[in-house]
Amino acid sequence: xxxxxxxxxxxxxxAQESREFYGLxxxxxxxxxxxxxxxxxxxxxxxxxxxxxxxxxxxxxxxMSVEVDDVDAAYAVMRENGAEIIHPLxxxxxxxxxxxxxxxxxxxxxxxxHR
Length: 115
Known about the structure:
By secondary structure, the protein is of the alpha+beta class. It has a single domain (about 5-115), classed as 2,3-Dihydroxybiphenyl 1,2-Dioxygenase, domain 1. It is about 15% helix and about 45% strand. The protein is built from 2 helices and 8 strands. It has helices at about 15-25, 70-80; strands spanning about 5-10, 30, 35-40, 50, 65-70, 85-90, 95-100, 110-115. Strands 2-3-4-1-5-8-7-6 form an 8-stranded mixed sheet, covered by helices on one side. Strand 7 (about 95-100) and strand 8 form a beta hairpin. The longest helix is centred in the middle third of the chain and has 10 residues, at about 70-80.
């Protein structure tokens, strides 16, 4: 299993203001589902920040997203090692397969793969 990217998720009710603020640092909007918006650096597209009001299908908003090349393998490893699964493995309508897991510091991590 390989990590493709890691994205901090900032919970905010000020999406427009956040887009403008991070735009000052060179970030541009690359995705916007209404409840989550992702900003990326045009010169380094894997450098990203997501701003979200809440999560569309999960009970909590994650603190971070980790995209992996094999989300099913990541889910199996987490379960085998007794990690706390917050949101079960499932396919989402926006084209990702994902689950949420709690890390040792209490942070919620969205582990995903694109279909």
